Amino acid sequence: WQWIWRLPLSESIRFFLWQVGHEALPTSAFLVQRHVIHDRLCSRCRNEVESVAHVFFRCEHSARLWRLLHMEEAVCWWLGSWQQWLKLCLQRCHILPLIVCWVLWKMRNERIFNGGDFSMWEALRQVHALHATMVRAFAVADDNIPHDMGLTWVSCIFAEGLQTSLHVDASFNTTSSYAGIGGLARDSNGRWLWGFYGAIEAVDALQVELLTILHGLRTAWNRRTQSVLCISDSTVAVELVMHDILSTNRFATTLYSIQELVHRRWTIHYEHSFREGNMCADLLARLGQTLGLEVEELVSPPPEVESQVLADIAGGPIVRL
After folding, report:
1. Cβ atoms of residues 53 and 78 within 8 Å
2. Cβ-based neighbours of 31, under 8 Å, separated by 6 or more
3. How far apart are CA 12 and CA 33, in angstroms?
4. GO molecular function terms here (predicted)?
5. How far apart are CA 314 and CA 118, in angstroms?
6. What is the mean pLDDT of the chain?
7. Rounded distance between C-alpha atoms, residue 85 and residue 91, angstroms
8. How many Cβ atoms are within 10 Å of 119's Cβ, its own excluded?
């Protein structure tokens, strides 16, 4: 266990992780075993015995934080041994999952001892801020201390001023003749304006990305949008729509249709985003793939997307693994 004391984390977090590794964290289950208290249920959800695994993974509030960080995979690495899980997290994601556990423990204690609670968006901000602080603090460190692998944090891109941001994405599966498309328009504060999702016939992933851009721009034009920042996580698609069209390009017809829209009396700019910064459109495209051959316009976000819309507005960045 000496490796824990060499982690690039504050002393309080190191001691916390030492307790986790020795299964000595004072959860309700632990305290009942030692006849300190009588109630072993989780104080937040009241659904299960409050074990360490419940605090970190199984409680619905904890599971939601992992989902918003898009790190559900880290939960699956736990197979019963806390020592193995901590080491695996360190190898694959450096200190980030360890900081998530620390913030979840602080949330739990805030409720028990002060009767308060963090909002999920406050928890996201704390994870990001604490990770950045630890990375800076241990940037120049002893060779025996494991170094950060250079994790990249990605936030959702919003337009500025009166411009509308149009986030689009596609979901293509080679085993299906249907591809999902999805998109949403937001104001400069990230608030939902309108959206769309559905399924179309397609044989190529890039073809679907371009058709999604085309559909999104057509919808924006029909809604009398004056200025659009179109955001896609397809690097190739963004490159194609921003440059001259070759008549020999197999997607020339779609590209000319997009170009015709660009030449109308409005302004269109394009920007590439990593997928982690385009999660709402990604979720809409995946949902759209289940609809059959139709595309629906959305006045409000579906329940499956609503929490991610709020997370983007709150400015909660997502780690790009």
Report:
1. yes
2. 37
3. 25
4. nucleic acid binding; RNA-DNA hybrid ribonuclease activity
5. 13
6. 88
7. 10
8. 11
pLDDT digit string (tens) for 115-166?
877 777 778 878 888 888 888 888 755 555 555 555 677 888 999 889 999 9
- The runs of H, that is alpha helices, within the chain are 11-21, 28-33, 52-53, 60-68, 72-76, 82-93, 96-114, 120-137, 205-222, 235-242, 252-262, 279-288, 303-314
- What residue type is 249 in one-letter code? N
156-173 pLDDT tens trace: 899 988 999 999 999 998
For 13-33, give the DSSP string. HHHHHHHHHTT----HHHHHH
Please report, for the chain, the start and end positions of each structural domain, with discontinuous segments joined by +. Answer: 2-150, 164-316
Tokens of 263: 């030449």
Q: Looking at the chain, how many residues does it have? A: 321
In angstroms, the CA 208 to CA 279 distance is: 17
CB 297 within 8 A of CB 184: no
Are 271 and 157 in contact by the 8 Å Cβ rule? The answer is: yes
Q: For residue 279, which of 235, 309, 248 has the smallest C-alpha distance?
A: 309
In the chain, what are the helix, strand and coil shares in percent, each to the nearest 5?
Answer: 50, 15, 35
167 φ, ψ (degrees, to nearest 5): -95, 125
Pick the CATH number of 164-316 from 3.30.1330.30, 3.40.630.30, 3.30.420.10, 3.90.550.10: 3.30.420.10
Answer whether 154's CB lies under 8 Å from 160's CB: no
Amino acid identity for residue 175 in this structure? T
pTM, two decimal places: 0.64
